[in-house]
Description:
Helix content is 31%, strand content 20%. It has helices spanning 8-22, 54-66, 85-93, 122-127, 140-148, 199-207, 226-233, 252-261, 285-292, 296-303; strands at 26-30, 47-49, 70-76, 99-104, 133-136, 157-161, 180-184, 191-195, 213-218, 238-246, 267-273.
Amino acid sequence: MLKNDKDIRDVFFNNIKRNFIKNKNSYILTNDADVFSLTKHRANNRFIDAGVAEQNLINIAAGLSASDKKVLVFGFCTFLTFRCYEQIRFNVASMKRDLKIIGLGPGYSFPYDGPTHHAIQDLYLMYLIPELEVINISDNNLANKISKNLNKIKGPAYIRLDKGAMNYFNNINYNLNKGFEFIYRGRSKKKLIISSGYFCKKAHDVASKLDHVSVINFFRFKNFNKKLLIKNIKNFKKIFIYDENSKNGGISNIILNLINDNKLNIKVKILSSPEKQLFKYSNDREDIYNLLGINDINLLKMVN
């Protein structure tokens, strides 16, 4: 059982640290970011801080990976995607390098830093790269599972990691190959919420107030069990996509394409961030949700 007060970043990077110490062929690179679990290892020759130079950072990482090194890169979501997209697309993905990119601060997890740190389009931006796996972590349990099995995720991958103690869904036995899990099951198959990342807990809490709504945590977007997901959603009357990302920047288009491609007759509604850059600075993430109308109150109204 994971400690209740453990930050999700520490859960993830403690496992990375153990592998880094044990495996002398592994390298960790960053763009001047820091996580507590790795602080003591920054002086190691296999830990490289390239500074605020993301294009160079990805080129170095790709070169190490081409030399059969096990490479992990971490930094803020917005900076590790938009600033070095071409390098990721060609030097990492097209070459199918076994390289993992960990994006810190998805969504509005750094609400006081403004639009430069609001990661609400990076998920689908990276999804557009054909060879790149994309994963969105929702809780400590899933963070622990993925970080312990990172070597089983073959090829290049972009993994989004939130912050804070997210110690819930510990009873869920996540299957990485499956790529999704029910985190709440209603009594009927009338309504289904599909969410990802930080919003999964909010969706769960809303559904638990009702008796006819189920919730799926959709966390892996390329190599997941599509047939099983279709089988699980096809009998629902309505699907509600609840996403902290924008409609065109998150999971909405992935789910809509899946429904349309398989000709499923299901009504779909979306509650997500609007397509705009928000110049709102707050110490409370919920302030932004309330301002944008994507809080759990509006989800409850939509679903009920």
